[in-house]
């Protein structure tokens, strides 16, 4: 059974998002911890959270994924941007203690000119100051496309971050299929080679989840433009390989494909599920 779900808004509550997921035959979902541009997080409503827990138990949901706002930049050259990121990061970790969600996805950040090594120092300084030993959530670093000064485009960069975090048993990686393809890992033609490289450099035990997105952009373009599954440069065969791959098929999968309506995710979910049923 695939664990797969879309990115959903929690504007109308967590229970509502759970219900929406069920409606489209998803058994997990990803949500932004707050407005994607940053801003204040809504107060948590225990009744709403209990409602989501009930749905998850009844429907046998897999792990949910919380995504930090994409403005969070732990390695900006600007101190005030880093301090804002620290505040959001800490607050999100505390909120996750109350939620049925143990995976917290962050973009490592953009070094905005200081260089990768300095950037990684800024990121890990904040992580080391704000994480604590018995926190519930695992901090999941997303593989990035490498646009601008993004850190996380090479597996080596993610490994450096993990190595510099003291509580590295609380660290993980989210492989974004669109991003890795754009950053020069050819998962369309050499999925096994890419996974071998991941295992050699980071270790597959750190791979906690996958963002399933096709790409509008060519291989190695360092561009970040998601496309619907099967309609982009990765193509449907790539996704068939991923969801049936022995080392990947048990991981939770999250769709971040461009859709007009949440119901449109249902087509992708049933397509991806159909690859499993035929085996
Ligand atoms: Fe992301
Ligand atoms: Fe992503
Ligand atoms: Zn992206």
Overview of the structural elements:
- With 279 residues, the chain is α/β, with parallel strands linked by helices.
- It has one domain: Divalent-metal-dependent TIM barrel enzymes (TIM Barrel).
- It contains nine helices and twelve strands.
- It has helices at 14-23, 46-59, 79-96, 116-130, 155-164, 177-182, 191-201, 235-244, 264-277; strands spanning 4-6, 30-32, 65-67, 103-106, 109-110, 138-142, 150-151, 171-176, 207-212, 214-215, 226-227, 253-255.
- The strands form three sheets. An eight-stranded parallel beta sheet has the order 1-12-9-8-6-4-3-2.
- α3 packs across α4 and α4 runs parallel beside α5.
- The chain is globular.
- The relative contact order is 0.13.
- Residues 142, 176, 211, 256 line the site of one fe (iii) ion (FE).
Order of helices and strands: EHEHEHEEHEEHEHHEEEHEH
Total domain units: 1
How much is the radius of gyration in Å?
18 Å
Q: From the helix content, strand content and strand pairing, which structural class follows?
A: alpha/beta
Percent helix, as a range, is 25-40%
Q: How many DSSP helices?
A: 9
Hetero ligands: fe (iii) ion, zinc ion
Beta content: 5-15%
Mean pLDDT: 96
- Total strands: 12
Nutshell version of this structure?
The chain has 279 residues and is α/β, with parallel strands linked by helices. The protein has helices spanning 14-23, 46-59, 79-96, 116-130, 155-164, 177-182, 191-201, 235-244, 264-277; strands spanning 4-6, 30-32, 65-67, 103-106, 109-110, 138-142, 150-151, 171-176, 207-212, 214-215, 226-227, 253-255.
Short descriptors:
alpha/beta, TIM Barrel, 8-stranded parallel sheet, 9 helices, binds fe (iii) ion, binds zinc ion
């Amino acid at each position: 059974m695939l664990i797969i779900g879309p990115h959903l808004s929690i504007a109308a509550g967590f229970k509502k998002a759970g219900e929406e997921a069920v409606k489209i035959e998803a058994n997990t979902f990803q949500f932004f911890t707050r407005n994607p541009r940053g801003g204040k997080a809504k107060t948590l409503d225990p009744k709403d959270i209990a409602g989501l827990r009930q749905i998850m138990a009844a429907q046998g949901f897999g792990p949910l994924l919380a995504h930090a706002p994409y403005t969070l930049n732990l390695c900006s050259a600007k101190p005030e941007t880093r301090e804002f990121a620290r505040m959001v990061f800490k607050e999100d970790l505390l909120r996750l203690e109350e939620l049925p969600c143990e995976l917290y996805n962050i973009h490592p950040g953009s070094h905005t000119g200081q260089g990768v090594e300095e950037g990684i120092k800024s990121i890990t300084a904040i992580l080391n100051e704000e994480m604590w030993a018995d926190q519930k959530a695992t901090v999941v670093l997303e593989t990035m496309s490498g646009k601008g000064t993004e850190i996380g485009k090479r597996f080596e960069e993610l490994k450096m971050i993990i190595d510099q975090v003291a509580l590295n048993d609380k660290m993980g990686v989210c492989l974004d299929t669109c991003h890795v393809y754009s950053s020069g890992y050819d998962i369309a033609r050499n999925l096994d080679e890419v996974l071998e490289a991941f295992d050699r450099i980071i270790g597959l035990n750190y791979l906690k989840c996958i963002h399933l997105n096709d790409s509008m952009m060519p291989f190695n373009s360092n561009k970040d433009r998601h496309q619907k599954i099967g309609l982009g440069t990765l193509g449907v065969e790539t996704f068939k390989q991923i969801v049936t791959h022995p080392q990947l098929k048990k991981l939770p999968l999250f769709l971040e494909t461009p859709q007009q309506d949440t119901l449109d995710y249902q087509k992708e979910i049933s397509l991806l599920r159909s690859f499993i049923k035929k085996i």
